[in-house]
Amino acid sequence: MKTMKALGQTKFGGTEVLHEATLPVPEAQGSDLLVRVKAVGINPADSMVRQNVADFGKLQNSELVLTGWDCAGVVEDVGPQADGRFRKGDEVFFAGNIARRGCNSEYTVVDSRIVGRKPASLSFIEAAALPLTALTVWEGMVEGCGIPLGPQPGTPKRALIIGGAGGVGSIGIQILSRVCGLKVVATASRPESVEFCRKMGAHVVIDHSKDLKAQLTANGIDAVDYVLNTINPDINFDTLTALIAPMGKICSLHPITKPVDLASLYVRRISVVYELMFTRPMLNVQPEMQGAILDHVSALVDAGTLRTTLVTQKPWTVAGLAEAHQHSQSGKAIGKIVLGPVG
Amino acid sequence: MKTMKALGQTKFGGTEVLHEATLPVPEAQGSDLLVRVKAVGINPADSMVRQNVADFGKLQNSELVLTGWDCAGVVEDVGPQADGRFRKGDEVFFAGNIARRGCNSEYTVVDSRIVGRKPASLSFIEAAALPLTALTVWEGMVEGCGIPLGPQPGTPKRALIIGGAGGVGSIGIQILSRVCGLKVVATASRPESVEFCRKMGAHVVIDHSKDLKAQLTANGIDAVDYVLNTINPDINFDTLTALIAPMGKICSLHPITKPVDLASLYVRRISVVYELMFTRPMLNVQPEMQGAILDHVSALVDAGTLRTTLVTQKPWTVAGLAEAHQHSQSGKAIGKIVLGPVG
Q1: Distance linking the first and last C-alpha atoms of chain B
Q2: In terms of DSSP H, where are the helices of chain A?
Q3: How far is A235 from chain B (nearest CA, A)?
Q4: Quick one: CA torsion of A139, A142, A143, A145, rounded to 10 degrees?
Q5: Of B55, B254, B274, which has the smallest distance from its Cβ to A269's Cβ?
Q6: Residues 101-140, chain A: which have Cβ within 8 Å of B?
Q7: Three-class DSSP category at B63
Q8: Which residue range or ranges hold the Enoyl reductase (ER) domain (chains A, B) (predicted)?
Q9: Of B269, B276, B277, which to mutate for an interface test with A (greatest number of A Cβ within 10 Å)?
């Protein structure tokens, strides 16, 4: 039996639970691809699963758990019912399925329907920064909020991204400004995060630690049509609803658990849209849409419309993974952290 | 000064407050049309305004208030900035603006941008049944929920309409089944309302006084993709969320005022969409979309795709208006009530 190196955990806790492990190389069954992992992107979901505080169901504290739901690699084998788009040797990227093992291992298996072609113009490290966050923005804003792909006639609609310099924020700025043609306001509070938001394409950057309404007004913006809220909505939901124009939409990436005033949204016809990138693969609802979105994102990268959000690279070691988790959890990370090369 | 007859009220209360009045014929200024009213549709908003319990702001108890926000009539004069679509003599229909007087008078003025051409194949009485409810369904479901116009490839998505035999429900069944190509489940509890839902095009009719989930299951439907909820969501919101498929949407025509469990909607990515037909004219947000929707609805009627939802006609008198309000408030009304001929 062929084996492989993995970075995993058998109990939940701080980064000290992470360790090296040896696993059998999995087989591509059903609609799966077997992928040789080249680089692994880090997301907040990794630390949430490591600590077992994820919103999407508790894991068992005994099995070997691998985190890492963002991958770029090479197709090694194709399952008998796999999507006909892929052949051995194809370079791919994908965000995976949180109901299965993450991809912190030399090989991984993934449902071919949620896999996209890696942008040819990016390295594996650069490509692994994109899938999870790009899917989140595309599903939440283009699909969930119904924002059309631009350019649009007339005055551009306005989007506010809370947490502009983070992983979702940094590809969100790009997609909403360059693909959807919106006027994008991003929030950031440190000089380096403000600069990063501007580099990603934000038209206006405001400080989320100060009065948002006053800062929008100072920039000639009376209200925004869309909000992409990357932080806990229990903190800021009512603040956001005061900024929204009639028929506006708020996309939340996290559940709203505290009571909120929904009645006040009625006369302005404001909608609340949830986005969780793992919904489709986890519940097996139109998973093929994720493959299609990633292929589209890949084409936009190769056309020069979108760029990687990679900022920090760490070695694919236990120490590198631990540092990446800590950096991700610090709340100070700018853009994306990717581990690699794998192996 | 030319005067006209009107049916109005100068205090709030039961139908006994309604009385006949004489008013000057208004002038078509700005972007308005002056319309000779031929028929007036009755909606729940009329009784709410009569009693001053509308969600959209309290009125003053002294001025002459006219209700009636559904009208079919003939253009008598065109304001200097009016939409170029209209000429004197054109037959039109529209739902109006609740921030202005309703149209229970021989003449009324209306912003030309929210006016549509009356279906040529309908009488004024038949046409006045449609604007407010058709706009509500179109804005709430096609725009708000993002339901594409059909036919769609693959298995049809499923919509549940709570209150299928009412004014909104009866045009909702038609639009969602015949224009959007959805499988439509409507609720109704009396033999005559069940029959009316079927006549409007409902594929399945279930009883809202019994277990909805069990009845859906008995009809081979495991979940629905959209809900059009025409009743108070404080009564049934949590019941509805249990019926919704992942990525489903609930359209509410009334504000949600009680605390609801929004966290449980997260993993399934369920959105809450509000619809209030008066938002656009009241807040002057893209009012021209209402003219465009009504023109589209008119064409669909003349093509035989949609039909009037008129069921009850009353004379345009104080007594007729009072009876219409009482019938509308009874909760037993099927389809629409229209008053006319006016004058």
Answers
A1: 18
A2: 44-50, 124-127, 131-137, 167-174, 191-200, 212-218, 233-241, 279-283, 288-302, 318-329
A3: 14
A4: 110
A5: B274
A6: 139
A7: coil
A8: 13-339
A9: B269
Q: How far apart are CA B160 and CA B250, in angstroms?
A: 9
Domain co-membership, B201 together with B215: yes
Nearest CA of chain B to the CA of A223: how many Å? 13
Residues A250 and A147 grouped into a single domain: yes
Q: Does B283 touch chain A (CB under 8 A)?
A: yes
pLDDT in tens, A304-337: 999 999 999 999 999 999 999 999 999 899 999 9
pLDDT one-digit tens code per residue, B281-326:
999 999 999 999 999 999 999 999 999 999 999 999 999 999 999 9
| A210 and A315 fall within a common domain | no
CA distance B309 to A198: 54
- Residue A210 to residues A168, A187, A217, B239, Cα–Cα distance (Å): 21, 10, 13, 40
Residue finishing a domain among B234, B249, B274: B274
Q: Structure tokens of A7?
A: 């970075």
Three-state DSSP string of A269-336 = CCEEEECCCCHHHHHCCCCHHHHHHHHHHHHHHHCCCCCCCEEEEECCCHHHHHHHHHHHHCCCCCCE
Same-domain check for residues A61 and A91: yes
| Domains: count for chain B | 2
Structural domain range at position A231: 136-274
For chain A, the straight-line distance linking the first and the last C-alpha, in angstroms and rounded, comes to: 18
